[in-house]
Amino acid sequence: MPHQTEIHFPADHPTAAGHFPGNPVIPGAVLLDTALTAIAAAEGLILGSCRLRAAKFLHPVRPGERMRVEWQAAPAGGIAFTGSVAGKPVMTGSVTS
């Protein structure tokens, strides 16, 4: 069974103003960093010792939205994770520790 957490990106998130004016999105690097920080904290991992194996961004996340992050041990080792907003997948990826 996967572990999960929710991450809220406030409507006034500081990255929203520049990405992109009139059509704000939370940058993929912020999504990834926030998700991996939450996973590391929950699993007792040190992010500096993790390696990103893959990351794919499937749909934009807007300021004011909540992203559900789910993760579990990957069959080949490491951790596989997904992010979704209102049930719609927004990112997938995996890390090794």
From TrEMBL:
Pfam families registered for this protein in UniProt: ApeI-like
Region: Disordered, residue numbers: 1-20
Residues of the ApeI dehydratase-like domain: 4-83
Positions with biased composition (Basic and acidic residues): 1-11
Domain of life: Bacteria
Protein's UniProt name: ApeI dehydratase-like domain-containing protein
